[in-house]
């Protein structure tokens, strides 16, 4: 049973345009969500997170939106740059003290110059 | 600042051989430590986590084991590797804040079992 789903395995976007990566979850106990970026043969790096008490968190070009009623979150990258090309993982966890992050399968973003 | 070291970067091992992957963290005390695996075409799967020396929790039954002999050292082992153990292994440490755990990953080990 996949509790965190990233239904788009890949996404291509023109440089300068907006990239929107989507993530759905099924476990209503999740209340903390994170996005990670991964280049080939490297470990994932933390991008941005959001707590369930918020519906939006912004950090530079990256914004994460959370829709709790729909159990859906999205990562917006504006403007997209070629260096953003990577695999993006959505992750979720329960309350603080829950040590397990549940990851989606990832979405490969290609930003075309 | 905190850093995490994981080695080796790549490893090719025959079926039935033993395995030892090591991970160390610098710049922090009593971190939570994790081993994840990414198999081909799949997401990141939590294998083990540890909240202190000698305290290991296993999330998935398998022929792998983990140990934490020192506060900032985490070791992943196997006595006999299987073909299905191939994958990209990631060590991570975490801090608690902002509502949940934030993980920081090492650079990973690509393990190929032949």
Structure characterization notes:
The complex is a heterodimer of chains A (113) and B (114). In chain A, 0% of the residues lie in helices and 53% in strands. With 113 residues, chain A is mostly beta strands. The model of chain A has no long low-confidence stretch (mean pLDDT 92). In chain A, a hairpin with a 6-residue loop joins β4 and β5 (45-51). In chain A, the strands form 2 sheets. In chain A, strands 2, 4, 5, 9, 10 and 11 form a 6-stranded mixed sheet that branches. Chain B has strands spanning 3-7, 10-13, 19-26, 32-38, 44-52, 55-58, 64-70, 73-78, 87-97, 100-105, 109-113. In chain B, β7 (64-70) and β8 (73-78) form a beta hairpin. Chain B is built from no helices and 11 strands. Chain B is mostly beta strands and 114 residues long. In chain B, strands 2, 4, 5, 6, 9, 10 and 11 form a 7-stranded mixed sheet that branches. The interface between A and B is medium-sized, with 30 and 30 residues.
Give keywords.
heterodimer; A: 113 residues; mainly beta; six-stranded mixed β-sheet; five-stranded antiparallel β-sheet; 11 strands; B: 114 residues
**What fraction, in percent, of the residue positions of chain B are helical?**
under 10%
Gyration radius over CA of chain A: 13 Å
Low-confidence stretches of chain A: none
Give the CA-CA distance, first to last residue of chain A: 38 Å
Question: What integer is the average pLDDT of chain A?
Answer: 92
> What proportion strand of chain A?
over 45%
CA-based gyration radius of chain B: 14 Å
Q: Kindly report the greatest chain-chain contact and the residue count on each side.
A: A-B, 30 and 30 residues
Give the overall shape of chain B: globular
Report on the biggest sheet of chain A.
6 strands, mixed
What does the oligomeric state look like here? heterodimer
What percent of the residues of chain A sit in helical stretches (DSSP H or I)? under 10%
- The SS-based structural class of chain A is mainly beta
Q: How many strands in all of chain A?
A: 11
Please, how many helices of chain A?
0
């Amino acid at each position: 049973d996949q509790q965190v789903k990233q239904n788009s395995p890949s996404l291509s976007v023109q440089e300068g345009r907006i990239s929107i990566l989507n993530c759905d979850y099924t476990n209503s106990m999740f209340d903390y969500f994170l996005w990670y970026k991964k280049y080939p043969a490297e470990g994932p790096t933390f991008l941005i997170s959001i707590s369930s008490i918020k519906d939006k968190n912004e950090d530079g070009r990256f914004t994460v939106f959370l829709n709790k009623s729909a159990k859906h979150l999205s990562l917006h990258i504006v403007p997209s740059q070629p260096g953003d090309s990577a695999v993006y993982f959505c992750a979720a966890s329960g309350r603080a003290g829950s040590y397990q992050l549940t990851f989606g399968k990832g979405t490969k973003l290609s930003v075309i110059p | 600042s905190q850093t995490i070291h994981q080695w080796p970067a790549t490893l090719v091992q025959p079926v039935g051989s033993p395995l030892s992957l090591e991970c160390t963290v610098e710049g922090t005390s009593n971190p939570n430590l994790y081993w994840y695996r990414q198999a081909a075409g799949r997401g990141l799967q939590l294998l083990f986590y540890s909240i202190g020396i000698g305290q290991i929790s296993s999330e998935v039954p398998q022929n792998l084991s983990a140990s934490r002999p020192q506060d900032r050292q985490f070791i992943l082992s196997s006595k006999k590797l299987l073909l299905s153990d191939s994958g990209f292994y990631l060590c991570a440490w975490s801090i608690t804040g902002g509502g949940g755990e934030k993980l920081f990953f090492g650079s990973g080990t690509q393990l190929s079992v032949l």
